[in-house]
């Protein structure tokens, strides 16, 4: 019997005697010896089972420690992202409490005890991912698991951040509808989807952005219609997605000019649109010394006038070989369909005002909206 087997025997005895402190220390000893000997698979199974056992007996501090060692072993062993590993991580995070009893005291910090575990999991998925974007932000399958968990816990800001990186647009749309209907004013229904679509486009994920927009507008109880929409902001996003599919710089210019009052509803939109202009239409980055950004580029004539044939750079020039998007999948739109869509949106926009008419809501059903400006790294 080798040393690790002897330790496992002691481990069984410690659980029989309910000596959970001793059991925790034995797990840590096995961890260090197995890491030194590079016996990873057996160690992973042991740490996961150990953490789950300690959870069952409410030894949460020790369970969190073993869970962190489990993910640390994933990192050290370069274990690839698989459904089985993702399920283990989800099980650990879902069963571990975000707060311990000691955290409820007046002087304790209101911090989720699982944060280190969550961050380690993202670090692991970044390390073992093959695609460039996943190496920078983490694997989308992991982000989806984290988003679902945090959504179930009503941790809206954190869940939203992970949905942005999860590549699950239909579920993201359901989440945004749940978030809006539960936490915000009825009249803000278009703001929630607009910001999300713009942020997804800043990740160069055109297909995800299209499906996200279509799912949200089809399922949201205040919309549930085909374009054009009653909301000018929704019409702007609809036409923007069409302009991106055409890669027509002139249409992008026209939209920015025509919908300027709508764009001004949120000061973050300009930054997103500036990045979108660079990614899809070949706009130069804003010069800090000039300070004009996107609108200064328009005024200087760096973009063609509406109606001119200016398609911008090819997709191959803008995207690396490991990007997910197949832009040819959005080539069904043409100039005529864009102009027709734009005209139909104009007619509907003119029935109201340049911004949304607020929806009348009973005061008893209103809840103070939660500020949801997630700072997504656009670079």
UniProtKB/TrEMBL annotation:
Compositionally biased region (Acidic residues): 320-337
GO biological-process terms attached to the record: protein insertion into ER membrane
Organism: Acrobeloides nanus
Region Disordered: start-end pairs: 304-379
Keyword Disulfide bond belongs to the record: no
Family listed: Belongs to the GET4 family.
GO cellular component entries: BAT3 complex
Places the protein is found: Cytoplasm, Cytosol
Keywords: Cytoplasm, Transport
Keyword Transport (UniProt): yes
InterPro entries per record: GET4, TPR-like_helical_dom_sf
Compositional bias (Polar residues): 339-358
Phylogenetic lineage: Eukaryota, Metazoa, Ecdysozoa, Nematoda, Chromadorea
Name of this chain's protein: Golgi to ER traffic protein 4 homolog
Annotated Gene3D superfamilies: Tetratricopeptide repeat domain
Compositionally biased region (Basic and acidic residues): 362-379
